[in-house]
Specification:
- The protein is an alpha+beta fold.
- The protein is 22% helix and 40% strand.
- It folds into two domains: 3-120 and 270-281, Roll (Diaminopimelate Epimerase, Chain A, domain 1); 125-266, Diaminopimelate Epimerase, Chain A, domain 1 (Roll).
- Strand 13 (202-208) and strand 14 (213-216) form a beta hairpin.
- The longest helix is centred in the first third of the chain and has 14 residues, at 76-89.
Length: 283
């Protein structure tokens, strides 16, 4: 019998079951890609990760990230949740307050600040999007400004809505969003609106039905894409050095995502808590 150690970590929260879970297999060495994909389909979480020895001496570990249907080069909440699991299990230790993770997007640096992890996000690029009327019909809401496809490893179509109430009231056409996502080769659609709750600057929702994830409870790469969109459209200045976004309330969660602008970089910050720990039997 092959058994591997794993943790299920709730990300973007200090309170169990209020954030976004990720399954972290801490002993991924020796598993085939097909085996990893099968485990990810079985956990049925938005992402499952596998920790392996790094191929570069510049990294502390290698991380492979899978949705229930496909491997991703990078994703935010799995990166932060896996870093939490790696530190907690002693697989790697921070050096000068930093961890270096190798993944499909390259070697990324994380800052360990107490119980908060800050991820140095991959550089973002953008692509114009012309089907605004079709997108508004799928969402059932009007967009403010021109949506853009933001590429931060995963590619998200980002749109601003009127406010947080408009974001919270969405009931999108998931079949149409899946078709659009497949046609444009994007992960899905992330929307945001200005908040007035006294806790956050923005409310965010991320829809990825083409990946088997109708709605991601709290999405790291989606929030990075929003931050990159704000920067590209000249709106980041209103938030100074950063802001807090909330996500997941429509799914019974309350994720808290921190964004920090540092020169040309976007830093994604969050907390994590282990909810499940044990072994997976693979044969």
């Amino acid at each position: 019998m092959t058994a591997v150690h794993f943790k299920q970590v709730d990300v973007f929260t200090r309170v169990p079951f209020r954030g976004n879970p990720v399954a972290v297999v801490l002993e991924g060495k020796g598993l085939s890609t097909a085996e990893m994909q099968r485990v990810a389909a079985w956990t049925n979480l938005s992402e499952t990760t596998f920790v392996l020895p790094p191929s570069s001496p510049a990294a502390d570990y290698l991380l492979r990230i899978f949705t229930p249907r496909a491997e991703l080069p990078f994703a935010g909440h799995p990166t932060i949740g896996s870093a939490h699991a790696v530190l907690e299990a002693g697989v790697a230790r921070a050096k000068d307050g930093r961890l270096r993770q190798e993944c499909g997007a390259g070697i990324l640096e994380l800052q360990v600040d107490g119980d908060t992890l800050w991820l140095d996000s991959p550089p973002a690029t953008e692509t114009a999007f012309a089907e605004i009327a079709a997108l508004e019909k799928m969402l059932g809401a009007k967009a403010k400004g021109a949506p853009l496809i933001m590429n931060v490893g995963p590619r998200w179509l980002v749109a601003e809505l009127a406010d947080a109430d408009a974001v919270g009231g969405l009931n999108p056409d998931m079949a149409a969003l899946a078709e659009l996502s497949n046609r444009l080769s994007i992960g899905g659609v992330t929307v945001y609106g200005a908040a007035r709750d006294g806790k956050s600057a923005l409310h965010v929702r991320s829809f990825a039905p083409a990946h088997g994830i109708p709605e991601d409870p709290v999405c790291g790469s989606g929030n990075i894409s929003v931050a990159a969109y704000l920067k590209k459209t000249g709106q980041a200045e209103r938030y100074g050095k950063g802001y807090v976004a909330r996500q997941g309330m429509q799914l019974g969660r309350d994720g808290q995502v921190s964004i920090r602008y540092d020169g040309g970089k976007i830093l994604l910050g969050g907390n994590a808590v282990t909810c499940v720990e044990g072994t997976l039997r693979l044969d």
